[in-house]
Amino acid sequence: xxxxxxxxxxxxxxxxxxxxxxxxxxxxxxxxxxxxxxxxxxxxxxxxxxxxxxxxxxxxxxxxxxxxxxxxxxxxxxxxxxxxxxxxxxxxxxxxxxxxxxxxxxxxxxxxxxxxxxxxxxxxxxxxxxxxxxxxxxxxxxxxxxxxxxxxxxxxxxxxxxxxxxxxxxxxxxxxxxxxxxxxxxxxxxxxxxxxxxxxxxxxxxxxxxxxxxxxxxxxxxxxxxxxxxxxxxxxxxxxxxxxxxxxxxxxxxxxxxxxxxxxxxxxxxxxxxxxxxxxxxxxxxxxxxxxxxxxxxxxxxxxxxxxxxxxxxxxxxxxxxx
Length: 323
Hints:
Layout: E1 13-19, H1 30-47, E2 50-56, E3 60-66, H2 71-91, E4 103-107, H3 109-121, H4 123-126, H5 133-136, H6 144-147, H7 158-163, H8 168-182, H9 196-199, H10 203-211, E5 222-223, H11 226-263, H12 268-272, H13 280-293, H14 299-306, H15 310-322
Parallel strand pairs: 4-5
Antiparallel strand pairs: 1-3, 1-4, 2-3
């Protein structure tokens, strides 16, 4: 069955899972781990992405995050492409590092937030990387130590997490007791995927709804109850309708950029670098006008495609109008 498109509205809570290709490792030592975690945090601050929980394992990683204004895809693309290049250079290898498609599950916040935080932070214990909650308190490769105050990471949102467990010092103690309770529940497969059965708490939940004459709605990309699933799908459908013409314009713009670079014997990387070597300024002027007036792209989207600022696009259009 083909996989559906990502549900990627900014401000959405996602449980993302990244796996090494063919179950291969994605980190070999602490230098790799440090690079991955630092990049994860730097990009979160740059893109307005909020990270609540994370765990970096040898061959996969979990991140619970709320996407920023650019959406989840932009954040994950920047993280995984940068890290793959770093890893390949450092270990003198080539080819793909990650499975082609990372997994992302849109999550109903009120129902699943605490469970997901606990599930993700307990990964090192389930994998045998640490042997106890006490050892997990100082384990540097998950967000648990940050919540417990044993490590400082400015980009990890611990306040929102602790607010779910109470006020002041008691919140941290309640959070730890919650992890103790959750640690005895095993792998909890419903927390790593959506779908009808998982979202309703198993077949018993689905049968209960059906016996009451209620229709349960599920989607593999969503973890939440029927009403939540419906609201997410309705919003996604509306976004698709709005973006169809927009995406066509972007595709045409990208094709124009590739053709212009080819004609000028430049690479696309040079084009996006911000360089002003000839004939780049003239190409950008011509494409700015076309993208906005013919393709209907916004000034901000045009700027992103051309690798310049929005104010620069505005100035180009202003000068063209005077002419």
